[in-house]
Amino acid sequence: MSERPLDANSVAVIGAGAFGTALAVAALQAGGPTPRRVILLSRRESQVEDFKTSGRNEDALPGIALPEGLIVTAEPDAIEQAGTVLLAVPSQAQGEMARALLPLIARRADVVVCAKGLERETGRLLTEVVGEQLHRDDIAVLSGPGFAADIARGLPTAMTLAAASAEQAHAIATRLSGPTFRLYASTDRVGVQLGGALKNVLAIACGIIEGAGLGESARAAMISRGLAEMSRLVTARGGVADTVRGLSGLGDLVLTGTSHQSRNLRYGIALGRGGAAREAAGRELVEGALAASVAAQDAAARGIDMPITQAVAAIIDGGFDIRAAVDALMSRPITQE
Fold this sequence. Notes:
The chain is α/β, with parallel strands linked by helices. The protein has 14 helices and eight strands. The protein has helices at 18-29, 45-54, 94-101, 126-134, 148-152, 166-176, 189-211, 216-236, 247-258, 263-272, 277-281, 287-302, 307-317, 322-330; strands spanning 7-14, 37-41, 71-73, 82-87, 110-113, 140-143, 157-162, 181-186. Strands 3-2-1-4-5-6-7-8 form an eight-stranded mixed beta sheet, with helices on both faces. Strand 7, helix 6 (166-176) and strand 8 (181-186) form a beta-alpha-beta unit. Helix 3 runs parallel beside helix 4, helix 7 (189-211) packs antiparallel against helix 8 and helix 7 (189-211) packs across helix 12 (287-302). The radius of gyration is 20 Å and the shape is globular.
């Protein structure tokens, strides 16, 4: 990582998709009266030119005008002095992107993972993956209930910022919070990340229930029992059980498990209506589909009972049909809640 001077008031967002663009807008608005330099780094020069011409990201956030002052570029060198670096690329690209940007990220910059998932090959947390590439153990993570379009439009949104220390978490949360974008500080990076990854799996389950016409009572039962599964894995991996009842667990699950803006919910609905996994995904990246099998394997290896997660993974893999999954879940032994 570079030794160049650090601009503490500069924020770099890596990834010009919907969420990255929305975070860049929020970061610029969070600056208040103090001038702030916010860089949105895109992979494509053509996208940068479209931004400059239209003032919008029509591919990812159609119809939403971007604020003046946002620096959109395809030149990686632009991030060199950024005091805060937000990695807003898909979960499986986080490590690769961190490795590519290693020479450009200032050593004292706060680096924040802004994706929800687990490393496919190992099941590791994304902060561990990115930390390994950057040779650091203080990688922070942003997670919680926030749709990109809502954030970019300035609609009230609250999320969680977890870091290695309370001081670091509070500092980053304060730096990025604005009039309509509020971050709550946490030190439970394990619980926040597992909540973000598993809520996608459970949102697929909510979609399957909706698509198969199983009723709202089934959805409510799935959400409550899904939280119990989430809590078991969080505690087994060293996190705090209460975290799953906060924004990054319950809050995010309620949002993605009930709103049709959620691609994971839409994917589940397509599965519930009888679609095959590949057809249901279409061209969308469905993070929950990747996380389901990873989480199911991790739970099995640890001896943790996660029947909903395992059922979703089996349905996606084609080893279970919907009716067989429901029968298996409903015929489980009666236990104490």
